[in-house]
Design a protein that fits this description.
two-stranded antiparallel ribbon, mainly alpha, 231 residues
């Protein structure tokens, strides 16, 4: 005896719902295997599920495309901030800048090492510290660092920061739509289960093969166990 198994993907769920709806639409009212109430639920959830899945895919595509551009901004910002810090340290070594002025940048205890910029959050934090520190130092009469200048660093950092904010918004939007799909998923499973229960009950007096064929027309999915022989 084959066993049935609920769909395990969203596209399969939508297909199962559509199949039952379309089969019912082409069946005379008196011969319907699914109740009107269940069909109404199926129509509603199918529309919601299809719309939510489409929106989720749209937000995911937007996030993916934005990330491609963002990664280049990350690379440039990391390179410029790292280079600026290295030039700053060389200026200290050459006594062009006093060591105690590293305090402006939050680098007084860094042992002349470039901070860890491996994460977006670290890059965001250190970028702000370095730019603020250079502006504070020069505002007190210090000679600006060039090659790269803080203005150039700021341009690259601003582009990164803007891209970071866009990514955060995209991720939140994608997560929100993913949660919506997950919420609808459990409801869709419940309705599909009810449809299949009603269909099987409606055809229970038919011969086995006839019964399975009729049930499949409503979208029921059957599987045979390994080595099971179908007669």
């Amino acid at each position: 005896m084959p066993y049935r198994k609920l769909p395990n993907t969203d596209s399969a769920r939508i297909k199962a719902l559509k199949t039952a709806i379309e089969k019912s639409a082409s069946t005379h009212f008196q011969h319907l295997a699914v109740s009107v109430a269940t069909l109404d639920e199926a129509k509603k959830i199918e529309i919601q599920m299809e719309r939510a899945c489409a929106l989720y895919q749209q937000t995911l595509d937007t996030q993916t495309n934005a990330n491609k551009s963002f990664q280049n901004k990350v690379k440039n910002a990391r390179m410029y901030i790292s280079h600026f810090v290295q030039v700053l340290y060389m200026s200290v070594v050459r006594a062009e800048i006093k060591a105690e002025q590293l305090y402006f940048y939050g680098l007084q205890e860094a042992n002349m090492l470039v901070p860890d910029l491996s994460t977006n959050e670290a890059l965001l934090s250190w970028g702000e510290k370095i730019i603020r520190g250079e502006n504070l130092r020069t505002a007190k009469g210090g000679v600006p660092i060039y090659n790269p200048s803080i203005a150039k660093v700021n341009v690259m950092f601003s582009m990164f920061k803007e891209g970071y904010q866009v990514q955060q918004l995209c991720q939140k939007s994608t997560a929100r739509m993913q949660a919506k799909v997950a919420q609808l998923r459990s409801e869709a499973d419940r309705i599909i289960f009810n449809i299949w229960e009603e269909v099987e009950k409606h055809t229970m007096d038919l011969p086995m093969e006839k019964r399975l064929d009729e049930n499949r027309k409503y979208g029921l999915i059957y599987y045979y166990r390994k080595k099971e022989i179908v007669e």
